[in-house]
Amino acid sequence: MVLDHLDFELFAGDRIGLVAPNGSGKTTLFHLIMGLVKPESGKVEAFGQVLESEEDFAMVRRKIGLLFQDADDQLFSPTVLEDVAFGPLNLGKSRREAIEISRRILAFLGLEGFEERVTIKLSGGEKRLVSLATVLAMEPEVLLLDEPTTGLDNDIRRTLINVLQRLEMTMVVISHDFDFLDQVTRRIFSLENGRILTDEQVHFHVHRHAHKMGRAPHRHH
Amino acid sequence: MTEEVFARGDSPLHRTAPVVRTALAVVYCTVVALVNGFYAILAALAFSILMTAAARLNPVRVMRHLAWALGFLCFLWFVLPWSIAGTPLFCAGRLTVTREGVALCTRITLKSISILLAMISLLATMRVAALGQALGKLGLPPKLVQLLLLAYRYLFVLEQEYHRLYRAARIRNFIPRTNLHTYRTFAYLAAMLLVRAVHRARRVHQAMICRGFDGRFHSLQVYRPTVWNPVVAAAGSLVCLTLVVLEMTI
Protein backbone atom coordinates (compact mmCIF):
# COMPACT_ATOMS: atom_id res chain seq x y z
CA MET A 1 0.00 0.00 0.00
CA VAL A 2 1.35 3.39 -0.94
CA LEU A 3 -1.23 5.80 0.42
CA ASP A 4 -2.97 5.09 3.71
CA HIS A 5 -5.99 7.04 4.98
CA LEU A 6 -4.78 10.04 3.10
CA ASP A 7 -6.89 13.14 3.46
CA PHE A 8 -6.09 15.84 0.95
CA GLU A 9 -8.22 18.85 0.12
CA LEU A 10 -7.52 21.46 -2.50
CA PHE A 11 -9.43 24.72 -2.88
CA ALA A 12 -9.63 27.14 -5.78
CA GLY A 13 -6.66 29.47 -5.72
CA ASP A 14 -4.50 27.17 -3.58
CA ARG A 15 -0.87 26.82 -4.56
CA ILE A 16 0.55 23.89 -2.71
CA GLY A 17 3.98 22.32 -2.73
CA LEU A 18 4.31 18.66 -1.80
CA VAL A 19 7.61 17.40 -0.48
CA ALA A 20 8.13 13.76 0.28
CA PRO A 21 10.72 11.02 0.14
CA ASN A 22 10.99 8.85 -2.94
CA GLY A 23 8.39 6.12 -3.12
CA SER A 24 6.07 7.84 -0.67
CA GLY A 25 3.16 7.92 -3.08
CA LYS A 26 3.19 11.47 -4.45
CA THR A 27 2.80 10.34 -8.03
CA THR A 28 0.11 7.87 -6.93
CA LEU A 29 -1.80 10.77 -5.38
CA PHE A 30 -1.81 12.59 -8.71
CA HIS A 31 -2.82 9.46 -10.56
CA LEU A 32 -5.70 8.96 -8.12
CA ILE A 33 -6.94 12.48 -8.80
CA MET A 34 -6.80 11.90 -12.56
CA GLY A 35 -8.48 8.51 -12.32
CA LEU A 36 -5.45 6.65 -13.70
CA VAL A 37 -5.51 4.35 -10.67
CA LYS A 38 -8.50 3.55 -8.51
CA PRO A 39 -8.41 3.70 -4.70
CA GLU A 40 -8.94 0.43 -2.84
CA SER A 41 -11.06 2.31 -0.34
CA GLY A 42 -12.14 5.91 0.08
CA LYS A 43 -13.30 8.29 -2.56
CA VAL A 44 -12.15 11.03 -4.89
CA GLU A 45 -14.30 14.11 -5.04
CA ALA A 46 -13.82 17.05 -7.39
CA PHE A 47 -15.82 20.09 -8.45
CA GLY A 48 -18.62 19.09 -6.05
CA GLN A 49 -18.99 15.58 -7.38
CA VAL A 50 -17.91 12.14 -6.24
CA LEU A 51 -15.90 10.55 -9.04
CA GLU A 52 -16.48 6.94 -9.92
CA SER A 53 -17.04 6.17 -13.56
CA GLU A 54 -14.69 6.77 -16.44
CA GLU A 55 -17.00 9.61 -17.63
CA ASP A 56 -16.64 11.37 -14.27
CA PHE A 57 -12.89 11.32 -14.66
CA ALA A 58 -13.13 12.40 -18.29
CA MET A 59 -14.76 15.58 -16.92
CA VAL A 60 -11.95 15.97 -14.37
CA ARG A 61 -9.29 15.53 -17.01
CA ARG A 62 -10.73 18.47 -18.92
CA LYS A 63 -10.33 20.69 -15.88
CA ILE A 64 -7.14 19.36 -14.30
CA GLY A 65 -3.87 19.24 -16.18
CA LEU A 66 -1.12 16.83 -15.11
CA LEU A 67 2.49 17.36 -16.08
CA PHE A 68 4.25 13.99 -16.07
CA GLN A 69 7.68 13.40 -14.63
CA ASP A 70 9.16 12.26 -17.93
CA ALA A 71 8.42 14.55 -20.87
CA ASP A 72 9.03 11.69 -23.30
CA ASP A 73 5.85 10.11 -21.97
CA GLN A 74 3.88 13.16 -22.84
CA LEU A 75 5.20 14.08 -26.27
CA PHE A 76 4.33 11.57 -28.91
CA SER A 77 3.48 13.55 -32.02
CA PRO A 78 6.04 14.21 -34.74
CA THR A 79 5.96 17.99 -34.37
CA VAL A 80 5.51 20.36 -31.46
CA LEU A 81 2.41 22.02 -32.92
CA GLU A 82 0.68 18.69 -33.48
CA ASP A 83 1.44 17.60 -29.94
CA VAL A 84 0.20 20.80 -28.34
CA ALA A 85 -2.94 20.69 -30.50
CA PHE A 86 -3.67 17.06 -29.57
CA GLY A 87 -5.56 17.98 -26.37
CA PRO A 88 -7.71 20.77 -27.84
CA LEU A 89 -8.62 18.53 -30.79
CA ASN A 90 -9.68 15.80 -28.35
CA LEU A 91 -11.85 18.36 -26.59
CA GLY A 92 -13.71 18.87 -29.85
CA LYS A 93 -12.10 22.13 -30.93
CA SER A 94 -11.86 22.80 -34.65
CA ARG A 95 -8.48 22.67 -36.38
CA ARG A 96 -8.33 26.47 -36.62
CA GLU A 97 -9.12 26.90 -32.93
CA ALA A 98 -6.67 24.18 -31.90
CA ILE A 99 -3.85 25.78 -33.89
CA GLU A 100 -4.76 29.22 -32.56
CA ILE A 101 -4.72 28.01 -28.92
CA SER A 102 -1.47 26.11 -29.45
CA ARG A 103 0.31 29.10 -30.92
CA ARG A 104 -0.91 31.33 -28.10
CA ILE A 105 0.29 28.89 -25.42
CA LEU A 106 3.65 28.38 -27.14
CA ALA A 107 4.11 32.15 -27.29
CA PHE A 108 3.18 32.43 -23.59
CA LEU A 109 5.98 29.97 -22.78
CA GLY A 110 8.44 31.80 -25.00
CA LEU A 111 8.45 28.98 -27.54
CA GLU A 112 7.60 30.97 -30.66
CA GLY A 113 9.03 29.34 -33.75
CA PHE A 114 8.96 25.87 -32.17
CA GLU A 115 5.78 24.85 -34.04
CA GLU A 116 7.46 22.72 -36.71
CA ARG A 117 10.29 21.39 -34.53
CA VAL A 118 10.49 17.61 -34.24
CA THR A 119 9.60 16.63 -30.66
CA ILE A 120 12.19 13.87 -30.27
CA LYS A 121 14.99 16.26 -31.23
CA LEU A 122 14.25 18.83 -28.54
CA SER A 123 16.60 19.20 -25.58
CA GLY A 124 15.47 17.99 -22.17
CA GLY A 125 14.52 21.47 -21.01
CA GLU A 126 12.66 22.28 -24.21
CA LYS A 127 10.79 18.99 -23.92
CA ARG A 128 9.70 19.95 -20.41
CA LEU A 129 8.40 23.34 -21.55
CA VAL A 130 6.63 21.84 -24.57
CA SER A 131 4.98 19.20 -22.42
CA LEU A 132 3.82 21.99 -20.10
CA ALA A 133 2.40 23.65 -23.22
CA THR A 134 0.50 20.48 -24.12
CA VAL A 135 -1.09 20.53 -20.66
CA LEU A 136 -1.86 24.27 -20.69
CA ALA A 137 -3.45 23.95 -24.14
CA MET A 138 -6.27 22.03 -22.45
CA GLU A 139 -6.97 25.30 -20.60
CA PRO A 140 -7.27 23.58 -17.20
CA GLU A 141 -8.44 25.17 -13.95
CA VAL A 142 -5.99 23.18 -11.85
CA LEU A 143 -2.41 22.23 -12.60
CA LEU A 144 -0.62 19.22 -11.11
CA LEU A 145 3.13 19.22 -11.63
CA ASP A 146 5.15 16.08 -10.92
CA GLU A 147 8.77 17.01 -10.19
CA PRO A 148 8.92 19.69 -12.87
CA THR A 149 12.51 20.78 -12.18
CA THR A 150 14.37 17.47 -12.28
CA GLY A 151 17.15 17.62 -14.82
CA LEU A 152 16.60 21.24 -15.78
CA ASP A 153 19.44 23.72 -16.15
CA ASN A 154 19.20 27.12 -14.46
CA ASP A 155 17.87 28.99 -17.50
CA ILE A 156 14.97 26.65 -18.13
CA ARG A 157 14.30 26.46 -14.40
CA ARG A 158 14.04 30.24 -14.24
CA THR A 159 11.73 30.28 -17.28
CA LEU A 160 9.55 27.68 -15.59
CA ILE A 161 9.39 29.67 -12.34
CA ASN A 162 8.52 32.80 -14.29
CA VAL A 163 5.79 31.04 -16.25
CA LEU A 164 4.25 29.43 -13.16
CA GLN A 165 4.28 32.74 -11.30
CA ARG A 166 2.38 34.37 -14.15
CA LEU A 167 -0.25 31.59 -14.21
CA GLU A 168 -3.31 32.48 -12.14
CA MET A 169 -4.19 28.89 -11.46
CA THR A 170 -4.79 26.45 -8.64
CA MET A 171 -1.65 24.36 -8.43
CA VAL A 172 -0.07 21.40 -6.69
CA VAL A 173 3.64 20.90 -7.23
CA ILE A 174 5.54 17.78 -6.23
CA SER A 175 9.22 18.58 -5.85
CA HIS A 176 12.31 18.16 -3.70
CA ASP A 177 13.43 21.61 -4.74
CA PHE A 178 12.50 23.84 -1.75
CA ASP A 179 13.84 26.93 -3.43
CA PHE A 180 11.60 26.30 -6.43
CA LEU A 181 8.56 25.55 -4.24
CA ASP A 182 9.21 28.72 -2.29
CA GLN A 183 8.93 30.76 -5.48
CA VAL A 184 5.90 29.17 -7.10
CA THR A 185 3.75 27.92 -4.21
CA ARG A 186 2.29 29.48 -1.08
CA ARG A 187 2.16 26.49 1.25
CA ILE A 188 4.31 23.41 1.55
CA PHE A 189 3.11 20.04 2.77
CA SER A 190 4.94 16.85 3.28
CA LEU A 191 3.79 13.34 2.66
CA GLU A 192 5.05 10.76 5.12
CA ASN A 193 4.01 7.16 5.69
CA GLY A 194 1.15 7.68 3.27
CA ARG A 195 -0.28 10.67 5.17
CA ILE A 196 -0.04 14.41 4.74
CA LEU A 197 1.76 16.52 7.33
CA THR A 198 0.92 20.19 7.65
CA ASP A 199 3.36 22.87 6.70
CA GLU A 200 4.05 23.90 10.32
CA GLN A 201 5.65 20.55 10.86
CA VAL A 202 7.65 20.86 7.69
CA HIS A 203 8.95 24.34 8.23
CA PHE A 204 11.50 23.42 10.90
CA HIS A 205 14.65 22.80 8.97
CA VAL A 206 18.32 23.54 8.96
CA HIS A 207 19.27 25.88 6.16
CA ARG A 208 22.14 24.38 4.37
CA HIS A 209 22.66 24.24 0.64
CA ALA A 210 25.27 24.30 -2.07
CA HIS A 211 25.67 26.58 -5.03
CA LYS A 212 28.30 28.22 -7.18
CA MET A 213 30.48 30.91 -5.61
CA GLY A 214 29.31 29.87 -2.18
CA ARG A 215 32.48 31.20 -0.55
CA ALA A 216 32.02 34.73 -1.80
CA PRO A 217 30.00 36.97 0.52
CA HIS A 218 26.36 36.78 -0.53
CA ARG A 219 22.76 37.08 0.68
CA HIS A 220 19.73 34.89 0.36
CA HIS A 221 16.19 36.24 0.07
CA MET B 1 15.40 8.29 -38.82
CA THR B 2 12.06 9.93 -38.23
CA GLU B 3 12.62 13.01 -40.27
CA GLU B 4 10.14 12.37 -43.08
CA VAL B 5 12.45 14.02 -45.62
CA PHE B 6 10.13 13.64 -48.58
CA ALA B 7 6.96 14.76 -46.79
CA ARG B 8 7.53 18.44 -47.43
CA GLY B 9 6.71 19.64 -50.90
CA ASP B 10 4.10 21.25 -53.04
CA SER B 11 3.92 18.95 -56.05
CA PRO B 12 0.60 17.66 -57.44
CA LEU B 13 1.30 14.35 -55.71
CA HIS B 14 1.87 16.07 -52.35
CA ARG B 15 -1.47 17.79 -52.70
CA THR B 16 -3.41 14.66 -53.64
CA ALA B 17 -5.52 13.23 -50.82
CA PRO B 18 -3.58 10.60 -48.81
CA VAL B 19 -6.41 8.10 -49.26
CA VAL B 20 -6.13 8.29 -53.05
CA ARG B 21 -2.36 7.94 -52.92
CA THR B 22 -2.41 5.06 -50.44
CA ALA B 23 -5.03 3.12 -52.41
CA LEU B 24 -3.09 3.72 -55.62
CA ALA B 25 0.16 2.59 -53.99
CA VAL B 26 -1.45 -0.66 -52.83
CA VAL B 27 -2.97 -1.45 -56.25
CA TYR B 28 0.04 -0.35 -58.28
CA CYS B 29 2.57 -2.23 -56.16
CA THR B 30 0.47 -5.39 -56.26
CA VAL B 31 0.23 -5.20 -60.05
CA VAL B 32 3.97 -4.56 -60.44
CA ALA B 33 4.79 -7.41 -58.08
CA LEU B 34 2.67 -9.79 -60.13
CA VAL B 35 3.55 -8.91 -63.73
CA ASN B 36 6.19 -11.07 -65.34
CA GLY B 37 6.66 -9.92 -68.93
CA PHE B 38 9.67 -7.73 -69.67
CA TYR B 39 7.64 -5.11 -71.52
CA ALA B 40 5.28 -4.71 -68.59
CA ILE B 41 8.21 -4.50 -66.16
CA LEU B 42 10.01 -1.91 -68.27
CA ALA B 43 6.76 0.06 -68.56
CA ALA B 44 6.35 -0.10 -64.76
CA LEU B 45 9.88 1.22 -64.29
CA ALA B 46 9.12 4.08 -66.67
CA PHE B 47 5.86 4.88 -64.86
CA SER B 48 7.61 4.83 -61.47
CA ILE B 49 10.32 7.20 -62.70
CA LEU B 50 7.59 9.47 -64.06
CA MET B 51 5.85 9.40 -60.67
CA THR B 52 9.07 10.37 -58.89
CA ALA B 53 9.42 13.24 -61.36
CA ALA B 54 5.81 14.27 -60.73
CA ALA B 55 6.50 14.37 -56.98
CA ARG B 56 9.48 16.68 -57.70
CA LEU B 57 11.74 14.89 -55.24
CA ASN B 58 15.44 15.56 -54.89
CA PRO B 59 16.99 12.87 -57.17
CA VAL B 60 20.13 12.57 -55.04
CA ARG B 61 18.07 11.87 -51.91
CA VAL B 62 15.95 9.33 -53.79
CA MET B 63 19.09 7.57 -55.05
CA ARG B 64 20.50 7.49 -51.53
CA HIS B 65 17.34 5.79 -50.31
CA LEU B 66 17.46 3.33 -53.20
CA ALA B 67 21.09 2.49 -52.49
CA TRP B 68 20.07 0.53 -49.38
CA ALA B 69 17.82 -1.70 -51.43
CA LEU B 70 20.40 -2.02 -54.21
CA GLY B 71 22.89 -3.34 -51.68
CA PHE B 72 20.47 -6.10 -50.86
CA LEU B 73 19.87 -6.81 -54.55
CA CYS B 74 23.63 -7.14 -55.15
CA PHE B 75 23.48 -10.13 -52.89
CA LEU B 76 20.93 -11.73 -55.23
CA TRP B 77 23.19 -11.07 -58.22
CA PHE B 78 25.97 -12.97 -56.49
CA VAL B 79 23.87 -16.06 -55.97
CA LEU B 80 20.99 -16.36 -58.40
CA PRO B 81 22.59 -16.18 -61.90
CA TRP B 82 24.48 -19.47 -61.46
CA SER B 83 22.04 -21.28 -59.19
CA ILE B 84 19.11 -21.44 -61.62
CA ALA B 85 19.13 -24.27 -64.14
CA GLY B 86 18.74 -23.34 -67.84
CA THR B 87 20.54 -22.36 -71.00
CA PRO B 88 24.20 -21.59 -70.21
CA LEU B 89 25.25 -18.02 -70.95
CA PHE B 90 28.91 -18.35 -70.01
CA CYS B 91 31.09 -20.31 -67.63
CA ALA B 92 33.22 -18.85 -64.85
CA GLY B 93 35.39 -21.67 -63.58
CA ARG B 94 33.06 -24.34 -62.32
CA LEU B 95 30.05 -22.00 -62.16
CA THR B 96 27.71 -21.77 -65.14
CA VAL B 97 25.76 -18.56 -65.43
CA THR B 98 22.42 -19.23 -67.08
CA ARG B 99 20.22 -17.06 -69.22
CA GLU B 100 17.23 -17.82 -66.94
CA GLY B 101 19.18 -16.85 -63.81
CA VAL B 102 20.21 -13.49 -65.24
CA ALA B 103 16.66 -12.90 -66.51
CA LEU B 104 15.20 -13.62 -63.08
CA CYS B 105 17.69 -11.32 -61.39
CA THR B 106 16.98 -8.52 -63.83
CA ARG B 107 13.28 -8.95 -63.29
CA ILE B 108 13.57 -8.85 -59.49
CA THR B 109 15.87 -5.82 -59.63
CA LEU B 110 13.66 -3.80 -61.97
CA LYS B 111 10.48 -4.69 -60.10
CA SER B 112 12.03 -3.79 -56.73
CA ILE B 113 13.22 -0.44 -58.01
CA SER B 114 9.81 0.30 -59.57
CA ILE B 115 7.96 -0.55 -56.36
CA LEU B 116 10.36 1.41 -54.17
CA LEU B 117 10.15 4.47 -56.40
CA ALA B 118 6.35 4.26 -56.35
CA MET B 119 6.34 3.93 -52.55
CA ILE B 120 8.67 6.90 -52.19
CA SER B 121 6.67 9.13 -54.50
CA LEU B 122 3.21 8.08 -53.31
CA LEU B 123 3.62 7.27 -49.61
CA ALA B 124 6.82 8.92 -48.40
CA THR B 125 5.43 12.23 -49.64
CA MET B 126 2.92 12.29 -46.76
CA ARG B 127 3.39 12.47 -43.01
CA VAL B 128 3.10 9.18 -41.16
CA ALA B 129 0.06 10.58 -39.33
CA ALA B 130 -1.64 11.15 -42.68
CA LEU B 131 -0.70 7.66 -43.82
CA GLY B 132 -2.25 6.25 -40.65
CA GLN B 133 -5.45 8.14 -41.26
CA ALA B 134 -5.57 7.06 -44.88
CA LEU B 135 -5.09 3.42 -43.92
CA GLY B 136 -7.90 3.82 -41.41
CA LYS B 137 -10.19 5.22 -44.07
CA LEU B 138 -9.28 2.31 -46.33
CA GLY B 139 -10.58 -0.10 -43.70
CA LEU B 140 -7.50 -1.02 -41.66
CA PRO B 141 -8.64 -1.64 -38.03
CA PRO B 142 -8.03 1.39 -35.76
CA LYS B 143 -5.88 -0.71 -33.43
CA LEU B 144 -3.41 -1.44 -36.22
CA VAL B 145 -3.37 2.22 -37.26
CA GLN B 146 -2.52 3.28 -33.69
CA LEU B 147 0.11 0.60 -33.53
CA LEU B 148 1.75 1.99 -36.66
CA LEU B 149 1.66 5.59 -35.46
CA LEU B 150 2.94 4.94 -31.95
CA ALA B 151 5.55 2.42 -33.08
CA TYR B 152 6.85 5.08 -35.40
CA ARG B 153 7.14 7.61 -32.58
CA TYR B 154 8.60 5.35 -29.89
CA LEU B 155 11.03 3.34 -31.99
CA PHE B 156 13.42 6.20 -31.43
CA VAL B 157 12.92 6.28 -27.64
CA LEU B 158 13.37 2.51 -27.46
CA GLU B 159 16.54 2.74 -29.49
CA GLN B 160 17.86 5.32 -27.03
CA GLU B 161 16.88 3.09 -24.16
CA TYR B 162 18.73 0.18 -25.74
CA HIS B 163 21.85 2.30 -26.09
CA ARG B 164 21.54 3.40 -22.46
CA LEU B 165 21.34 -0.21 -21.29
CA TYR B 166 24.19 -1.28 -23.54
CA ARG B 167 26.33 1.60 -22.31
CA ALA B 168 25.59 0.55 -18.74
CA ALA B 169 26.86 -2.92 -19.60
CA ARG B 170 29.93 -1.60 -21.40
CA ILE B 171 31.11 0.69 -18.62
CA ARG B 172 31.28 -2.41 -16.49
CA ASN B 173 33.69 -3.90 -19.01
CA PHE B 174 31.23 -6.02 -20.92
CA ILE B 175 32.78 -7.17 -24.19
CA PRO B 176 30.59 -9.32 -26.45
CA ARG B 177 32.22 -12.69 -27.13
CA THR B 178 30.96 -16.03 -28.28
CA ASN B 179 30.11 -17.42 -24.88
CA LEU B 180 27.20 -18.09 -22.61
CA HIS B 181 27.83 -14.96 -20.56
CA THR B 182 27.41 -12.81 -23.69
CA TYR B 183 24.23 -14.56 -24.78
CA ARG B 184 22.79 -14.25 -21.31
CA THR B 185 23.66 -10.56 -21.11
CA PHE B 186 22.01 -9.84 -24.46
CA ALA B 187 18.97 -11.81 -23.40
CA TYR B 188 18.78 -9.67 -20.24
CA LEU B 189 19.14 -6.53 -22.34
CA ALA B 190 16.35 -7.60 -24.65
CA ALA B 191 14.12 -8.60 -21.75
CA MET B 192 14.80 -5.34 -19.94
CA LEU B 193 14.01 -3.41 -23.10
CA LEU B 194 10.70 -5.24 -23.35
CA VAL B 195 9.84 -4.51 -19.73
CA ARG B 196 10.72 -0.86 -20.16
CA ALA B 197 8.69 -0.68 -23.34
CA VAL B 198 5.64 -2.02 -21.51
CA HIS B 199 6.08 0.52 -18.70
CA ARG B 200 6.65 3.29 -21.17
CA ALA B 201 3.56 2.31 -23.13
CA ARG B 202 1.46 2.43 -19.97
CA ARG B 203 2.72 5.89 -19.04
CA VAL B 204 2.25 7.24 -22.56
CA HIS B 205 -1.29 5.91 -22.63
CA GLN B 206 -2.01 7.51 -19.26
CA ALA B 207 -0.65 10.83 -20.49
CA MET B 208 -2.82 10.59 -23.58
CA ILE B 209 -5.92 9.79 -21.51
CA CYS B 210 -5.20 12.85 -19.36
CA ARG B 211 -5.41 14.94 -22.47
CA GLY B 212 -8.80 13.61 -23.45
CA PHE B 213 -7.72 10.82 -25.80
CA ASP B 214 -10.65 8.54 -26.64
CA GLY B 215 -9.11 6.23 -29.21
CA ARG B 216 -9.41 8.49 -32.19
CA PHE B 217 -6.59 10.56 -33.65
CA HIS B 218 -7.45 13.95 -35.06
CA SER B 219 -5.09 15.37 -37.62
CA LEU B 220 -4.11 18.99 -38.02
CA GLN B 221 -3.39 18.65 -41.69
CA VAL B 222 -6.25 19.36 -44.02
CA TYR B 223 -6.29 18.07 -47.56
CA ARG B 224 -8.76 20.15 -49.51
CA PRO B 225 -10.36 18.34 -52.43
CA THR B 226 -8.24 19.38 -55.38
CA VAL B 227 -8.42 18.66 -59.09
CA TRP B 228 -5.46 16.38 -58.50
CA ASN B 229 -7.54 13.78 -56.66
CA PRO B 230 -9.54 12.63 -59.72
CA VAL B 231 -6.58 13.26 -62.03
CA VAL B 232 -4.17 11.12 -60.01
CA ALA B 233 -6.80 8.44 -59.42
CA ALA B 234 -7.62 8.28 -63.15
CA ALA B 235 -3.99 8.35 -64.26
CA GLY B 236 -3.10 5.69 -61.71
CA SER B 237 -5.92 3.41 -62.80
CA LEU B 238 -4.90 3.87 -66.42
CA VAL B 239 -1.30 2.99 -65.62
CA CYS B 240 -2.31 -0.16 -63.73
CA LEU B 241 -4.64 -1.15 -66.58
CA THR B 242 -1.88 -0.59 -69.14
CA LEU B 243 0.44 -2.85 -67.16
CA VAL B 244 -2.18 -5.57 -66.97
CA VAL B 245 -2.92 -5.31 -70.71
CA LEU B 246 0.80 -5.39 -71.55
CA GLU B 247 1.21 -8.44 -69.36
CA MET B 248 -1.75 -10.26 -70.91
CA THR B 249 -1.08 -9.49 -74.59
CA ILE B 250 2.69 -9.66 -75.03
In terms of structural class, how would the helical and strand content of chain B be classed?
mainly alpha
Low-confidence stretches of chain B are none
Spatial strand order of the main sheet of chain A = 4-5-6-1-7-8
Tally of discrete structural domains of chain B: 2
Q: What is the 3D form of chain B? A: flat
Tell me the strand percentage band of chain A: 15-25%
Low-confidence stretches of chain A: none
CATH-defined fold name of chain A: Rossmann fold
Q: Roughly how many Å is the radius of gyration of chain B?
A: 23 Å
Radius of gyration of chain A: 18 Å
H/E element string of chain A?
Answer: EHEEHEHHHHEHEHEEH
Strand order of the largest sheet of chain B: 1-2
CATH homology-level superfamily of chain A: P-loop containing nucleotide triphosphate hydrolases
CATH architecture descriptor of chain A: 3-Layer(aba) Sandwich
CATH class of chain A: Alpha Beta
Basic shape of chain A: globular
The count of strands of chain A amounts to 8
Number of strands of chain B: 2
Please tell me about this protein's structure.
The complex is a heterodimer of chains A (221) and B (250). Chain A is of the alpha/beta class and 221 residues long. Chain A has a single domain, classed as P-loop containing nucleotide triphosphate hydrolases (Rossmann fold). Helix content of chain A is 39%, strand content 15%. Chain A has nine helices and eight strands. In chain A, a hairpin with a 2-residue loop joins β2 and β3. In chain A, α4 packs across α5 and α4 packs parallel to α6. With 250 residues, chain B is mainly alpha-helical. Chain B contains nine helices and two strands. A two-stranded antiparallel sheet of chain B has the order 1-2. In chain B, α2 packs parallel to α9 and α4 runs antiparallel to α5. Chain B starts with 11 loop residues before the first helix and ends with a helix. Chains A and B meet through α2, α3, α4 and α5 of A and α7 and α8 of B.
